[in-house]
Amino acid sequence: MKILKMIVVLTLIGLISGGVLAYVYQWAELKIAANQVRETDAAVFKVVPGTKSYKTIAKDDLTYFECFDDVDGKLGTAILCQGNGYQGVIKLIVGVNADFSKFTGMSVLEQLETPGLGAKISEAVFQAQFNNLAARPPIEYVKGISPSKPNEIQAITGATISSRSVVNIINKTIEEWLRVK
């Protein structure tokens, strides 16, 4: 009888706890999705400076945003990029100008890199290297020296894998975007 009581009590506790977790998950999921949309929207305006409006385009597994000024002149394109980093998936957005000669900016949307090392990809100093970076040939990174070519960035000391991952993610996504646009 004692064992049956314990089973009933534990079952009730499990059901109530599971129900509460399911409710909280559904409630939070909507807020998380809304925050992701708001963050992506802000990033589009950040990586293509001067953007007043944009048009979202989704082709295959690629999503990009054609960016316009206040008189519908095309300023450039913001492209969502995603790939593996050192510790998990890195999601970022990169901007290119209208004639695809230069990158106009880069912003990390999500990352799980090592705090204090790879997580520096989210810092303004690293991201600023992508402003006015040559779009062709593909981006390269250098370690321990200053960039000497117009398409080079400096890798984060102690976080070469994260830096290389960002470069590879952007290069791969740009190649895909050039095929589908």
UniProtKB/TrEMBL annotation:
Keywords on record: Cell membrane, Electron transport, Flavoprotein, FMN, Membrane, Phosphoprotein, Translocase, Transmembrane, Transmembrane helix, Transport
EC top class named in words: translocase
Protein purpose: Part of a membrane-bound complex that couples electron transfer with translocation of ions across the membrane.
Protein name per UniProt: Ion-translocating oxidoreductase complex subunit G
FMN phosphoryl threonine PTM sites in chain numbering: 160
Sequence ranges assigned to domain FMN-binding in this UniProt record: 85-177
GO-annotated biological processes: electron transport chain
Domain of life: Bacteria
Molecular functions per Gene Ontology: electron transfer activity; FMN binding
Principal subcellular localization: membrane
Organism in which the protein naturally occurs: Candidatus Saganbacteria bacterium CG08_land_8_20_14_0_20_45_16
Gene: rnfG
Keyword presence, Phosphoprotein: yes
InterPro entries: FMN-bd (IPR007329), Ion_transpt_RnfG/RsxG (IPR010209)
GO cellular-component term (any): plasma membrane
Family the entry assigns: Belongs to the RnfG family.
